[in-house]
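Protein in question filed below.

…
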Amino acid sequence: MSTTETGQAETQDPDRGPEPDHLDHRGGSATSVAADRDPALSPAADHANPATTSPVPTVRRFKTASPSPTEPSRERTSGGVKLANISQTGDRIFRGLAAGSGVVIVLLVLFVGIFLLALALPSLLADQDNFLTSRNWSVGGNELRFGIAGLLWTTVLSSILAMVMAVPVAVGVALCLTQYLPKRISGPVSFLVDLLAAVPSIIFGLWGLRVLGPFLDPAIQWMGNNLGFIPLFSPGAGKSSVFVASVVLAIMILPIITAISRDVFAQTPRDQVEAALALGATRWEVIQTAVLPYGRSGVISASMLGLGRALGETIAVMIILSQVAPGSAFTPSIFSGGETFASKIANNAAEFDSPSKTGAFIAAGLVLFLVTFAVNAMARVIADRGPKS
């Protein structure tokens, strides 16, 4: 290649990019270049006619659209386009408020825990019985003897029994509202179910004591007489028993579980439902293969939240449950009476006349706080792991 050709190759248009090795700057192949130098190497080409040679490709240049002179958000400079400065004040304020709200919530939880522990610790140190295994509750006088074994059993038993009754009904109602009923009917029914959450606890307690308890008493007596050989069904307090309180608790937590389960089932991907129907699946098979697997984590978290609600219920349980006589033998029956953490504290609020007595009841409240906190934390963990699985 001559010096002139080398200079042309070096001054080629940068927009065209590097040319392949087998092409020269005129667009022809390596064979064509050799043929131009020696015509004998290309006998098939008509070298006499210049029209048969390949033309040099041309590159068209297009001008980019220039920014509008009336555009207010851009500033044209010699170096390019420069965006106008945007104020970040609103973002900083909102981020600070959001972070502050989260910090306040965490501090409130820590403050409640520290407050309960600080007031309960002196009484716990002065307790003469085992706090976790004793059923005694004697906080009068100079000697403290109290334990939470009976309170913990009644609280957990009534809450679990309420969950056993409420969760299947709540899931069935949620499936009925989202999979079977048309929207014009499911809307009013959902409103009525949610309306149960607005009923005060004292109303549920009075209804359970005056209406539900006498109504269930024949069934309680029958189960006690026929299943009394099982410790869990031994005869007891009848209409003022843990069983009646559990039924009331089940009705109270039903709207919570139903509302969350309904929202989760309604978000089932439509393509999965339609794919199951296209394969010939029945409505139940669609629910079994698409709806329930998708909403499993939501139902579990809703159940945990309902369990936390049942653990902390006070007024309704306090009205229904009959107190067990001090020193009586322990019975695990669901037809016996008892007291939960919340009802024990509410029933004896008038005895908070000394730091030692107050500390004993606050110690029971501390255990309830820890149990409720653990249940809600478990619900959060399950809810976060559900979409990933």
The chain is about 60% helix and 5% strand. Residues 89-126 form the longest helix (38 residues). The domain at 94-388 is CATH 1.10.3720.10 (MetI-like fold). The chain has two domains: 3-12+20-47, 94-388.
